[in-house]
Structures are given as structure tokens and as C-alpha cells.
Amino acid sequence: MRFPVSLWTACLLLAACIGGCTQERPDQDNGLVPATAAAVAATPTPYEVVPTYTPTPIIHIDIRLPPGTPTPTPAPQQHRVEAGDTLIGIAARYGVTVEDLQELNEIGDPRSLQIGQELEIPALHVSEEDANPVRARHELRRVAVAVDGLDIAWAMGEVANLDTVPVEQIRVAARLQAADGTEMVRRTTLAVRHITPPGKVAPFMFRLGEVSQTAHGWTLAVASIKPAHIGGYATELSVGKLRFEPQPSGTVLVSGLVANHESVTVADPEVVVTAFDAQRRVTAVRAMLPDERVLVPGGEVAFEGVLIPLGEPVADVTAFAQGFKDE
Length: 327
Hints:
With about 325 residues, the protein is mostly beta strands. The chain has helices at about 5-15, 85-95, 100-105, 130, and strands spanning about 20-25, 35, 60, 75-80, 120, 140-145, 150-160, 165-175, 185-190, 200-210, 215-225, 235, 235-245, 250-260, 265-275, 280-290, 295, 300-305, 315-325. It is globular.
């Protein structure tokens, strides 16, 4: 749906009306830690799979490609640097590496980006392994598309691991097609989870681009997914005392605690928070950094951050923690 800025502002004000004290409740939904606002009943919401095909007058998502279907190598793209952009963020948005961005654009110092600077996005190099991806059983869930106040469309959702082994490097691809099926634009991103155990989900959120009146719609699929090599990843972290509170600005303040259950120190812990609307569709995904960058065995650290939701007001949030073993 295409919102004018005034209507977008009204939606944010509506989201702010949800405010109030927060409650906590035990783990549910794929083992993630949920939290609800005071306006939501304290009883856990039953798990449900939201339909993943949502037509609108201008833009829609159509999930019909078979699991594991690879996407062809896309042509180079251009990105104009905007306020707040970083090389890490740009690389994540297009599913490429920071090193490739620096090399292709001859950037020595990542801090030297200038607003308005045109960057060439390298085409994805499809390896033999990626061209024949592991067809791990998976499912796209809770997918939503929202258009922000600048007419920029965003795709959000979760990839559920339905297999019996952990997976990693889940790459989600979206293709914008014309009415005749011609591909107009392709976007890719990595789901925001290092290791996705069986039965768990990996959230994703990425920028599709400006809404096009001539576009028929987006086709969304998991382009590749690989069996996980745990290695130095920390998998024994938990999130507790998860709380969220809508703010007058329309943003949502999220806080909680991260506990380390590993037998070794964990470096660079982060908390990935996913927000949902009343229909359990994803409205925001963000990785938040705790106050401390090193977490000793048995240790606990607080975190706090702000979510900027798109679409409907936030009714619930879930979170998981991840990091690296400091051995």
C-alpha cells in the first residue's frame, strides 16, 4: 500500500497509543523470548502461520518458488549513499561483502563515505555450491511488505528451519516482475541469524526500493541455505526480562538481559529482536548490542534499543542472542 507522508505520520501516532507498562511471559514460539505490552492479554498467543501472499493495489509478495530454488547472477546495481548509511549496512542490504564493496569502488577508508556518493554494487558470484544449494526443508513465514513515508518498500519475515540439522547462511531473494513476467529488479539479503537450529526461525528485513506503478509484484524465495558448521559460534545464550514500550514518537523501546550459558567467554554478543503486529506479521527486525562486549561464563548483561516499526502497530516482540566463543 502506498502511504502519503501525512498518513504515515498518523500511523506512527496510532502506534504510540499502545503505550503503557509491560509484562513478561515464559518462552514460546520457536523457543524465542517474547514480551507483550500491557494492552495485550497475559496468556500466550497460540502459534499461527500467517498467509504469505498479501495483494495490495500496487505491490504484493508472491511466494511460489520451490524451496532451494537458486537465483541467477544479477547485473550490477547502483546505490546512492544516504544519511546514516555505512558500508556494513549497504553490504547487508544487497547481500554482498564489505570487502567486495571497497574493492569495486576503490574505498580505502570505510569512514570516507559521502552523502550522494554513487556506489556500484558487485554482482553476486554464484559458486557451484550456491548454484546447487542444499535443499534443506524450510518455510517462509509471517512475511509482510510495508511502504515507509518515503515510498520505499521493505520486505520482512522469517525463515523456519524444518530440517533435522542446524543451518546457516540463509539467503533470501526477492525479484520484482512486470506483468509479462520480465524481471525488473532483484534484491537479496542474509537472514539475521548465525546458526538456525531445527525448529527455530531466522528473521530477515531488507529494502526493496521505491514503489513502482508498473511493477506486477515481488516473488520471494530462499535462494540458498547450508548445513551449519558451528565452529566458534556461541549457541548457548539466552534472553530474559524482555520488555517493550511504544514511545510517543512511534518508535518502540526494547530492553532485557542476555545470559551466557557457554563454558567459555563470549565476545561481541548481540540480541536480534523481531516485532510483530496483531496478526503476527513481522513489522521490524533489528540487532541490538548489550552494554558489554565480552560476557564471561555464567555472566549476564543488559541491553536496550529502539525499533522503528513499519506497517501495523507492534503487538508483540521476540528475541534471541548470538555471539562468538572467545577461546
